[in-house]
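Researcher: Please translate sequence to structure tokens.
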Amino acid sequence: MTSTRTDRVTVDDGDFAAHLWMPDAGTGPGLVLLQEIFGVGVFVRGVAEKLAALGYVVAAPDLFWRFAPNFEATHDEAGLADAFEKLQQLDVPLAIGDSIRTLEHVAELDEVQGRPGVIGYCLGGTLAWGVAGQDDPAVCVSYYGSGIPDMLDLVEKVSCPTLFHFGDIDHYLPMEGVAALIEAISGRAGFTINIEHAGHAFENFDAPLFYDAAAAEASWAKTVAFLGTHLPTAPAATAP
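Model: Translation complete:
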């Protein structure tokens, strides 16, 4: 079973929990996993376990710590309303700063090899893009970050390989926003966009309001391949 622990990460106005998952090898490349509006719940923990099984050291910070520490929403209409209420309390620049500080914390761990990357879902997909634009993660994987179309000025500042996942019937992120991103990255190396025929949060297996099994399987395979190319867990084999 994957070993876990919780570290404390210090910032100017306090400290917060970063939940860690370790691969069986005990060491590996690092990934900062950024939460949805539902918190560091069943889905985020499930993703962390899958990434640790691939060989990554994974850290998921509690980004609602200033106003709702350890928050986890249920995946029904009431839980969705609760999660959106919490989102309104979030200071996005501070959350990006917390995410960057978590990245630095992970980079300093003895168990981590090389520069860590960042991966995020929903809210976390937007924040991951913010981290890539303001810091230097090894890679960025962003799932359906609805704030990205309002942050296209970061395109010129992002230097790491970046994979975006979107759904073409996402009511929270219309395709016009995705089209604007496609135009903004046109001609620039290092950016990959995957579009699934699905709505928002299609990978969240714990959210029956959103989950799409086919889209989740397809996008996850692309993420694993992307990470295997740009942040491999073992050295590539060399020809004799």
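Researcher: Any highlights?
Model: The longest helix spans residues 213-230.
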